[in-house]
Amino acid sequence: MKFMLRKLLPVALVSMLLAGLSGWAVAADSKDPIILPTHNWSSQIVMSYVVGKLFEKLGDNVEYKPADSQAVYESIRRGDVTVSMEVWQSTFGKSFNEALDKGGIIDAGTHTAKTREEWWYPAYVTEFCPGLPSWEALNACAETFSSPETAPLGRYLDGPADWHGQETKDRIEALKMDYKAVFAGSAAALWAELEAAKKNNKPIVLFNWSPNFTDALYGGDFIEFPEYYEGCRKEDGGDGVCGSPPAGWLKKAAYYQMPKKWPAAYKLLTRIDFDKVQIATMAKLVDIDGLEHEEAADKWLADNEAAWKPWLKD
C-alpha cells in the first residue's frame, strides 16, 4: 500500500501541475464588459464596432461609451474605458503621451496606416487660388475664402473645437494669417459644408485627414505649412508656425490591466492592424453610402474576412 502511494503521488502531482498550466494557458477572459469609446468621426465609431464584434467572437462582453476624444486617455488610465483604436499622432499624440507618462495605459501597437491631418481643399478649388498648396498662396487668397461671418478675413472650417482648437488659433496667430477659424460641431458638419461648396462651385478650405473617404472622392491636397518637428507647437514651447506630421502614426491604447483581465482579447488587440484603404472604407460606408455605424461594421466584417480571420487564429 505504501509502495502504491509512493508510485501514485508523483503522478497525481504531475496531473495537478499540468491541469494548472493548462488552465493558465487558456485562461478565460473576465465576464466584465470591455468598454470601447465612440467619438465624433465615422471611421472611429465603425472601427470600434468592428473590434467589439471581434471581441464578442471570443466570448467577451462589450459595451460602447461616448467619450471625449482628448480626455479618453485619462478614462483609460482609470479603467473607465478599456481600449482606444484610433490614436492619431497629430491631434491626440500629446494627450496620449501624457497618459503614458502617468502610467495606467498601454501602447498596444501601431496600425500600418500612416496618417495626415491638416488644412485641406478639394481639387476644384485650385482654380480659385493659384499657387496652392502653399500656405503663403492660401493667405494671399484670403479674401476669396471669406464669408459674411469672417469678412474681410478668410474662413477656415475646422473640426470640433475639442480636437485641436487652440493649436489652430496658435498657428493662425503665429503665421499672421488673414483667416478666422470656424469650428464645426461634428465631422458630419464638415462633409455637409464640403458637399454644398462643391455643388455650388464655391471655394472652401477645411480640416481633413487621411485615411478618409475623401481620398478617392474629391481629390484635392493638404496645405503645405512650415515643416513639423518635435516641439514646434506653441503648447510644447515652439513658435507654433509648423504644420502637422506628414506621415503620422496611428496607435492603439489599452487599460494596463487588460492583458491580465482579458488576456485573449488583449492578444487579439495586439494583432489587429488596419491599413489606409480599410479605414477609408469604414468612413465611406457611413459618410457616402449612408449606413448606420453598426451596419457599416457588419458589412465591413462580411467583406473583409481575409483580413480579420487570421487575427483570431490560435
CATH topology name of the largest domain, in short, is D-Maltodextrin-Binding Protein, domain 2
Largest pleated sheet: 3 strands, antiparallel
Q: What is the CATH domain class of the largest domain?
A: Alpha Beta
Helix content, binned percent: 40-55%
DSSP strand (E) fraction? 15-25%
In the predicted model, the low-confidence regions spanning at least 5 consecutive residues are 1-26
State the order of secondary-structure elements, H for helix, E for strand.
Answer: HEHEHEHEEHEHEHEHEEHHHHH
| CATH architecture annotation name of the largest domain | 3-Layer(aba) Sandwich
* Spatial sequence of strands, sheet with the most strands: 3-10-4
Provide a count of the helices.
Answer: 13
Q: Shape, please?
A: globular
What number is the mean pLDDT?
91
Summed up, the domain count is: 2
**Structural class by secondary-structure content:** alpha/beta
Summarize the structure.
The protein is of the alpha/beta class and 314 residues long.
Description:
Mean pLDDT is 91; it is low at 1-26. 45% of the residues lie in helices and 16% in strands. The chain is α/β, with parallel strands linked by helices. Helix 2 (42-57) crosses helix 11 (276-287), helix 2 (42-57) crosses helix 12 and helix 11 packs across helix 12. The protein folds into 2 domains: 31-114 and 247-312, 3-Layer(aba) Sandwich (D-Maltodextrin-Binding Protein, domain 2); 116-236, D-Maltodextrin-Binding Protein, domain 2 (3-Layer(aba) Sandwich).
